[in-house]
Design goal:
With 385 residues, this protein is an alpha/beta fold. It has 13 helices and 17 strands. The strands form four sheets. It has a seven-stranded mixed β-sheet with strand order 4-12-11-10-7-5-6. It has a four-stranded mixed β-sheet with strand order 1-2-3-15. A hairpin with a 2-residue loop joins strand 16 and strand 17. The longest helix is centred in the C-terminal third of the chain and has 19 residues. The radius of gyration is 21 Å and the shape is globular. The two termini are 32 Å apart.
Length: 385
């Protein structure tokens, strides 16, 4: 089908929940994508931090091909080796507890909320303004953004939103609190890094009152900030965390990972998912983890992230730059959506706008130095109009 035909199919057959850009992508490799007319694009978005190790990484492709020809699905009524190996790898690389598999970041948030509420029945969940934890009802209720919540009220009760500040979090936690749920780096609201003091205050308050501290690392995890998990740079260890997006190397998988204290809270029948941790996505995730959790790669993320941040600060119309590693955003003095559209259609650079003046950049962790410089030049062209 042509792009025009695809757009007509969408108008007639697809619920209008997305505002798509007028491009059809048909192939990807590393940091590059190609459209249906053969035009090449530089991808600085990674499917919103999903293809962290690049499009169609050879080790992920090989793992999927081998597994898909052997076994695709059995359900969680039975064992498969890829799922067990993946759970072990995730636990050992992070909090040392146990893992619940699901299919997305929103589902991981739902599992985390259920975990916290079972550990402290009826307890409230404290979240911070600007958070985004997903669009299913529990996750949406933990996402204090009026535009996302208002059309779907009433929401799940028992959520309290406060400012992402030490005193606000410390004052919000008491003996009735089940959990504090935060993103160490807020992604969808425009890459806002929570301060170490804020996270430390949340940790201290949870320890004092017996609440669970849960980190949402759906976007900032899997090497995005230059360590495998973002919390490793922040001096605070959570009781549990949610991961997804880049975990599957491009395939859909999410997980809730606990520390030892919460490892045995959920019992058989408390939660479940038909497709979660299936052998194909688990094999893909194992391969993605092997590629990501290599110190030379993570060191390059920190190095090239600094290069990208410095380059962004020199561009016209850029007011400020924030973020960590390869998770960056820049504030502009011109409308961001227009810049993003020009970048895509005129410069063939893929970025996105998270607000009226905010451009978010999430390049692949495997990107080359020359591609960083090329992306900066393309973005400069889009900013200059």
């Amino acid at each position: 089908m042509s792009l025009a035909e695809l757009q007509e199919v969408e108008r007639s057959s697809v619920i209008a929940s997305y505002a798509r850009q007028p491009v059809e992508f048909v192939r990807g490799e590393g940091a590059r994508l190609w459209d249906d007319e053969g035009n090449e694009y530089l991808d600085f978005l990674c499917g919103i931090s999903v293809t962290n190790i690049g499009h169609c990484h050879p080790r992920v492709v090989a793992a999927v091909r081998e597994q898909v020809g052997r076994l695709m699905h059995t359900s969680n009524l039975y064992y498969t080796e890829p799922a067990m190996r993946l759970a072990q790898r995730l636990s050992q690389s992070s909090l040392g507890g146990k893992v619940f598999f699901c299919n997305s970041g929103a589902e991981a948030s739902e599992a985390a909320i259920k975990l916290a509420r079972k550990a402290r029945a009826g307890g409230d969940v404290v979240v911070v303004y600007g958070a985004f934890h997903g669009r299913t009802y529990g996750a949406l209720s933990a996402t204090p953004q009026e535009s996302k919540q208002a059309p779907f009220a009433p929401l799940v009760p028992g959520f309290r939103a406060v400012a992402a500040e030490p005193d606000a979090l410390a004052g919000a936690v008491d003996e009735r609190t089940a959990a504090v749920l935060v993103e160490p780096i807020q992604g969808e609201s425009g890459v806002h890094v929570l301060s170490n003091d804020t996270l430390a205050a949340a940790r201290a308050a949870c320890d004092e009152h017996g609440a669970a501290l849960i980190f949402d690392e759906v976007q900032c995890g899997m090497g995005r900030t230059g360590t495998l998990w973002a919390y490793e740079q922040m001096g605070v260890r959570p009781d549990a965390m949610t991961v997804a997006k880049a975990l599957g190397g491009g395939l859909p998988i999410g997980a809730l990972i606990t520390g030892e204290r919460l490892a045995d809270v959920l019992a058989p029948g408390d939660h479940g998912s038909t497709f979660a941790g299936g052998p194909v996505v688990a094999a893909a995730a194992l391969a993605a983890l092997e590629v990501t959790d290599e110190q030379p790669l993570l060191g390059r993320v920190r190095e090239l992230g600094q290069r990208l941040m410095a380059g962004l600060r020199e561009l016209p119309h850029v007011v400020s730059v924030r973020g960590r590693g390869m998770m960056l955003a820049c504030e502009l003095d011109v409308p961001a959506p227009e810049v993003v559209r020009r970048a895509l259609l005129a410069q063939r650079l893929i970025v996105n706008a998270t607000g009226p003046t905010t451009v978010r950049l999430l390049p692949p962790l495997t990107i080359e130095r020359e591609q960083i410089d090329d992306g900066l030049a393309r973005l400069a062209g889009a900013l200059e109009g």
